[in-house]
Amino acid sequence: MNDRGKIIAGLIIFFAVFTFPFWYNHGAASSVPEPKLTDKAKAAKTCVADTQFMRTEHMKLLDAWRDTVVREGGRVYTNENGKEFMASLSNTCMDCHSNKTEFCDRCHNYVSSDPYCWDCHTYPKEEK
Ligand code: HEC
Ligand code: HEC
Ligand code: HEC
Question: Of the ligands numbered here, which is closest to the C-alpha atom of 63?
Protein backbone atom coordinates (compact mmCIF):
# COMPACT_ATOMS: atom_id res chain seq x y z
CA MET A 1 0.00 0.00 0.00
CA ASN A 2 3.04 2.24 0.40
CA ASP A 3 3.31 2.60 -3.36
CA ARG A 4 0.12 4.55 -3.55
CA GLY A 5 1.82 7.90 -2.98
CA LYS A 6 4.40 7.10 -5.62
CA ILE A 7 1.76 6.12 -8.14
CA ILE A 8 -0.19 9.32 -7.57
CA ALA A 9 2.99 11.41 -7.78
CA GLY A 10 3.90 9.56 -10.98
CA LEU A 11 0.48 10.22 -12.44
CA ILE A 12 0.72 13.91 -11.59
CA ILE A 13 4.15 14.20 -13.23
CA PHE A 14 2.97 12.25 -16.27
CA PHE A 15 -0.07 14.49 -16.63
CA ALA A 16 1.99 17.68 -16.24
CA VAL A 17 4.53 16.61 -18.87
CA PHE A 18 1.92 15.25 -21.26
CA THR A 19 -0.14 18.43 -21.22
CA PHE A 20 2.84 20.80 -21.14
CA PRO A 21 2.41 22.08 -24.72
CA PHE A 22 -1.18 23.02 -23.95
CA TRP A 23 -0.84 24.99 -20.74
CA TYR A 24 2.49 26.48 -21.76
CA ASN A 25 0.67 28.29 -24.58
CA HIS A 26 -2.16 29.39 -22.30
CA GLY A 27 -4.51 26.67 -23.44
CA ALA A 28 -3.97 26.89 -27.19
CA ALA A 29 -2.15 24.00 -28.86
CA SER A 30 -0.08 26.61 -30.69
CA SER A 31 -0.63 30.31 -31.15
CA VAL A 32 -2.09 30.90 -34.58
CA PRO A 33 -1.37 34.26 -36.18
CA GLU A 34 -4.02 36.94 -36.04
CA PRO A 35 -3.64 39.28 -38.99
CA LYS A 36 -4.81 42.78 -38.06
CA LEU A 37 -7.03 44.87 -40.34
CA THR A 38 -6.42 48.57 -40.90
CA ASP A 39 -9.25 51.04 -40.40
CA LYS A 40 -9.45 51.39 -44.17
CA ALA A 41 -9.86 47.62 -44.63
CA LYS A 42 -12.46 47.50 -41.83
CA ALA A 43 -14.44 50.26 -43.55
CA ALA A 44 -14.33 48.34 -46.84
CA LYS A 45 -15.67 45.26 -44.98
CA THR A 46 -14.71 42.81 -47.74
CA CYS A 47 -11.56 41.90 -49.58
CA VAL A 48 -11.22 41.80 -53.37
CA ALA A 49 -12.56 38.24 -53.22
CA ASP A 50 -14.19 35.91 -50.71
CA THR A 51 -12.28 35.81 -47.39
CA GLN A 52 -11.80 32.04 -47.33
CA PHE A 53 -10.52 32.17 -50.90
CA MET A 54 -8.18 35.03 -50.05
CA ARG A 55 -6.86 33.20 -47.00
CA THR A 56 -5.76 30.18 -49.01
CA GLU A 57 -5.40 31.42 -52.60
CA HIS A 58 -4.12 35.01 -52.42
CA MET A 59 -0.73 34.03 -53.84
CA LYS A 60 -2.38 32.50 -56.88
CA LEU A 61 -4.56 35.56 -57.35
CA LEU A 62 -1.44 37.75 -57.24
CA ASP A 63 0.20 35.51 -59.83
CA ALA A 64 -2.86 35.81 -62.04
CA TRP A 65 -2.84 39.58 -61.63
CA ARG A 66 0.82 39.73 -62.55
CA ASP A 67 0.19 37.66 -65.68
CA THR A 68 -2.75 39.74 -66.87
CA VAL A 69 -0.84 42.98 -66.31
CA VAL A 70 2.57 41.96 -67.63
CA ARG A 71 1.55 39.62 -70.44
CA GLU A 72 -1.87 40.86 -71.49
CA GLY A 73 -1.75 44.48 -70.45
CA GLY A 74 -5.06 44.20 -68.57
CA ARG A 75 -5.14 46.23 -65.36
CA VAL A 76 -8.70 45.73 -64.21
CA TYR A 77 -9.85 42.82 -62.04
CA THR A 78 -13.59 42.22 -61.75
CA ASN A 79 -14.65 40.07 -58.81
CA GLU A 80 -17.65 37.74 -58.44
CA ASN A 81 -19.89 40.62 -57.38
CA GLY A 82 -18.97 42.69 -60.42
CA LYS A 83 -16.84 45.06 -58.37
CA GLU A 84 -13.74 46.37 -60.15
CA PHE A 85 -10.24 46.74 -58.75
CA MET A 86 -6.97 47.83 -60.27
CA ALA A 87 -4.81 44.69 -60.49
CA SER A 88 -1.88 45.95 -58.47
CA LEU A 89 0.03 44.60 -55.50
CA SER A 90 1.29 47.94 -54.21
CA ASN A 91 -1.61 50.16 -55.24
CA THR A 92 -4.50 47.86 -54.38
CA CYS A 93 -3.59 45.17 -51.80
CA MET A 94 -1.22 47.43 -49.90
CA ASP A 95 -3.68 50.32 -50.00
CA CYS A 96 -6.11 48.45 -47.74
CA HIS A 97 -3.50 46.28 -46.04
CA SER A 98 -0.99 49.06 -45.49
CA ASN A 99 0.07 47.45 -42.20
CA LYS A 100 2.36 44.85 -43.78
CA THR A 101 4.05 43.86 -40.51
CA GLU A 102 0.80 43.28 -38.67
CA PHE A 103 -1.02 41.71 -41.58
CA CYS A 104 0.99 39.94 -44.29
CA ASP A 105 4.06 39.33 -42.14
CA ARG A 106 2.15 37.88 -39.20
CA CYS A 107 1.03 34.93 -41.27
CA HIS A 108 4.19 34.64 -43.32
CA ASN A 109 6.45 34.56 -40.26
CA TYR A 110 4.24 31.86 -38.81
CA VAL A 111 4.66 29.65 -41.90
CA SER A 112 8.28 30.80 -42.46
CA SER A 113 7.45 32.28 -45.83
CA ASP A 114 9.34 35.32 -47.07
CA PRO A 115 7.90 36.45 -50.42
CA TYR A 116 10.61 38.07 -52.53
CA CYS A 117 8.11 40.51 -54.08
CA TRP A 118 9.39 43.37 -51.93
CA ASP A 119 12.75 43.33 -53.70
CA CYS A 120 10.94 45.32 -56.39
CA HIS A 121 7.44 46.18 -55.21
CA THR A 122 6.91 48.83 -52.59
CA TYR A 123 4.69 48.84 -49.53
CA PRO A 124 3.59 51.83 -47.47
CA LYS A 125 5.91 53.11 -44.77
CA GLU A 126 4.57 52.15 -41.38
CA GLU A 127 4.57 54.26 -38.29
CA LYS A 128 5.27 52.64 -34.97
C1 HEC B 1 -10.86 47.25 -50.39
C2 HEC B 1 -9.90 46.87 -49.35
C3 HEC B 1 -9.09 45.61 -49.60
C4 HEC B 1 -8.26 45.34 -50.66
C5 HEC B 1 -8.01 46.19 -51.89
C6 HEC B 1 -7.66 44.05 -50.39
N7 HEC B 1 -8.11 43.55 -49.21
FE8 HEC B 1 -7.59 41.79 -48.37
N9 HEC B 1 -9.01 42.02 -46.95
C10 HEC B 1 -9.79 43.14 -46.77
C11 HEC B 1 -10.74 42.91 -45.69
C12 HEC B 1 -11.80 43.89 -45.18
C13 HEC B 1 -10.50 41.59 -45.23
C14 HEC B 1 -11.24 40.83 -44.11
C15 HEC B 1 -12.53 40.29 -44.65
C16 HEC B 1 -13.31 39.53 -43.60
O17 HEC B 1 -13.03 39.69 -42.41
O18 HEC B 1 -14.20 38.76 -44.00
C19 HEC B 1 -9.40 41.07 -46.03
C20 HEC B 1 -8.87 39.80 -45.89
C21 HEC B 1 -7.73 39.35 -46.53
C22 HEC B 1 -7.04 38.09 -46.27
C23 HEC B 1 -7.48 37.04 -45.25
C24 HEC B 1 -7.05 37.45 -43.87
C25 HEC B 1 -7.42 36.49 -42.79
O26 HEC B 1 -7.66 36.94 -41.66
O27 HEC B 1 -7.47 35.29 -43.03
C28 HEC B 1 -5.93 38.05 -47.06
C29 HEC B 1 -4.89 36.97 -47.13
C30 HEC B 1 -5.95 39.27 -47.86
N31 HEC B 1 -7.04 40.03 -47.51
C32 HEC B 1 -5.00 39.59 -48.83
C33 HEC B 1 -5.18 40.57 -49.77
C34 HEC B 1 -4.40 40.68 -50.99
C35 HEC B 1 -3.24 39.80 -51.36
C36 HEC B 1 -4.94 41.71 -51.71
C37 HEC B 1 -4.59 42.14 -53.11
C38 HEC B 1 -4.70 41.08 -54.10
C39 HEC B 1 -6.00 42.29 -50.90
N40 HEC B 1 -6.12 41.56 -49.75
C41 HEC B 1 -6.75 43.41 -51.24
C42 HEC B 1 -9.72 44.32 -47.52
C43 HEC B 1 -9.01 44.47 -48.69
C1 HEC C 1 -4.08 34.48 -43.21
C2 HEC C 1 -2.65 34.41 -43.35
C3 HEC C 1 -1.99 35.22 -44.45
C4 HEC C 1 -2.09 36.57 -44.69
C5 HEC C 1 -2.90 37.59 -43.93
C6 HEC C 1 -1.25 36.86 -45.84
N7 HEC C 1 -0.65 35.70 -46.28
FE8 HEC C 1 0.49 35.52 -47.97
N9 HEC C 1 0.75 33.55 -47.56
C10 HEC C 1 0.17 32.84 -46.52
C11 HEC C 1 0.51 31.44 -46.63
C12 HEC C 1 0.08 30.34 -45.67
C13 HEC C 1 1.34 31.32 -47.76
C14 HEC C 1 1.96 30.06 -48.33
C15 HEC C 1 3.35 29.89 -47.85
C16 HEC C 1 4.01 28.73 -48.53
O17 HEC C 1 3.36 27.95 -49.23
O18 HEC C 1 5.22 28.63 -48.37
C19 HEC C 1 1.47 32.66 -48.33
C20 HEC C 1 2.19 32.97 -49.47
C21 HEC C 1 2.21 34.19 -50.09
C22 HEC C 1 2.89 34.47 -51.34
C23 HEC C 1 3.67 33.46 -52.17
C24 HEC C 1 5.06 33.38 -51.59
C25 HEC C 1 5.96 32.50 -52.37
O26 HEC C 1 7.18 32.61 -52.13
O27 HEC C 1 5.49 31.71 -53.18
C28 HEC C 1 2.69 35.79 -51.62
C29 HEC C 1 3.20 36.55 -52.83
C30 HEC C 1 1.90 36.35 -50.54
N31 HEC C 1 1.63 35.34 -49.64
C32 HEC C 1 1.52 37.67 -50.46
C33 HEC C 1 0.81 38.22 -49.39
C34 HEC C 1 0.54 39.64 -49.23
C35 HEC C 1 0.99 40.72 -50.17
C36 HEC C 1 -0.17 39.75 -48.06
C37 HEC C 1 -0.68 41.02 -47.40
C38 HEC C 1 -1.48 41.91 -48.26
C39 HEC C 1 -0.38 38.41 -47.53
N40 HEC C 1 0.26 37.52 -48.36
C41 HEC C 1 -1.09 38.12 -46.39
C42 HEC C 1 -0.65 33.36 -45.53
C43 HEC C 1 -1.07 34.68 -45.45
C1 HEC D 1 12.62 41.63 -60.14
C2 HEC D 1 11.62 42.57 -59.74
C3 HEC D 1 10.23 42.00 -59.36
C4 HEC D 1 9.96 41.06 -58.40
C5 HEC D 1 10.92 40.35 -57.49
C6 HEC D 1 8.51 40.90 -58.40
N7 HEC D 1 7.95 41.72 -59.34
FE8 HEC D 1 5.97 41.92 -59.72
N9 HEC D 1 6.37 43.24 -61.20
C10 HEC D 1 7.63 43.70 -61.54
C11 HEC D 1 7.51 44.62 -62.67
C12 HEC D 1 8.65 45.37 -63.34
C13 HEC D 1 6.12 44.68 -63.00
C14 HEC D 1 5.44 45.49 -64.10
C15 HEC D 1 5.02 46.79 -63.50
C16 HEC D 1 3.92 47.45 -64.27
O17 HEC D 1 3.79 47.23 -65.45
O18 HEC D 1 3.14 48.15 -63.59
C19 HEC D 1 5.44 43.81 -62.05
C20 HEC D 1 4.08 43.63 -61.99
C21 HEC D 1 3.41 42.93 -61.02
C22 HEC D 1 1.96 42.93 -60.84
C23 HEC D 1 0.94 43.73 -61.62
C24 HEC D 1 1.17 45.25 -61.52
C25 HEC D 1 1.19 45.84 -60.15
O26 HEC D 1 1.11 47.10 -60.04
O27 HEC D 1 1.26 45.15 -59.12
C28 HEC D 1 1.69 42.12 -59.79
C29 HEC D 1 0.34 41.80 -59.19
C30 HEC D 1 2.97 41.59 -59.32
N31 HEC D 1 3.99 42.09 -60.11
C32 HEC D 1 3.10 40.71 -58.28
C33 HEC D 1 4.30 40.25 -57.80
C34 HEC D 1 4.40 39.30 -56.72
C35 HEC D 1 3.23 38.69 -55.99
C36 HEC D 1 5.73 39.09 -56.51
C37 HEC D 1 6.38 38.16 -55.50
C38 HEC D 1 5.91 36.78 -55.51
C39 HEC D 1 6.46 39.92 -57.48
N40 HEC D 1 5.55 40.60 -58.25
C41 HEC D 1 7.84 40.02 -57.56
C42 HEC D 1 8.82 43.36 -60.93
C43 HEC D 1 8.96 42.41 -59.94
Answer: 3
